[in-house]
Design brief:
This protein is α+β, with helices and mostly antiparallel strands and 102 residues long. The protein has helices at 30-41, 81-90, and strands at residues 4-8, 14-17, 46-51, 62-67, 92-101.
């Protein structure tokens, strides 16, 4: 099962680690992981588009999704810059999921 770490493109903070996001990691795409996270945290309807991770450079609302190695420690503080920097160095960006409010 892929384990994703979801980073907010606008704030730069880690929003979710699918190691423990409403249960264990699942066989899902980066877009499905973002939808699952949003379903747990938002009441608003959104549309989603999965793109190459480099699309995040244009400061569009969305999430950069990283693939974490099996042995990567669980994220405990997604606001700590050292934690964020370590995650970016150790994990592979696999998608940018752009979101739009409906």
């Amino acid at each position: 099962m892929p384990r994703y770490i979801i980073l907010d493109n606008v704030t730069g903070s880690i929003r979710a680690d699918t190691l423990d996001l409403d249960g264990p990691p699942r066989d899902e795409s980066p877009l499905e992981a973002v939808r699952r996270y949003d379903a747990l945290t938002l009441d608003d309807e959104r549309s989603y588009a999965e793109e190459h991770p480099s699309a995040a450079l244009n400061n569009v609302l969305g999430y950069i999704v990283y693939l974490a190695p099996d042995d990567y420690p669980k994220i405990r503080d997604g606001e700590d810059q050292d934690v964020i920097d370590a995650m970016i160095a150790a994990c592979e960006p696999v998608a940018f999921v752009e979101v739009r409010e409906l």
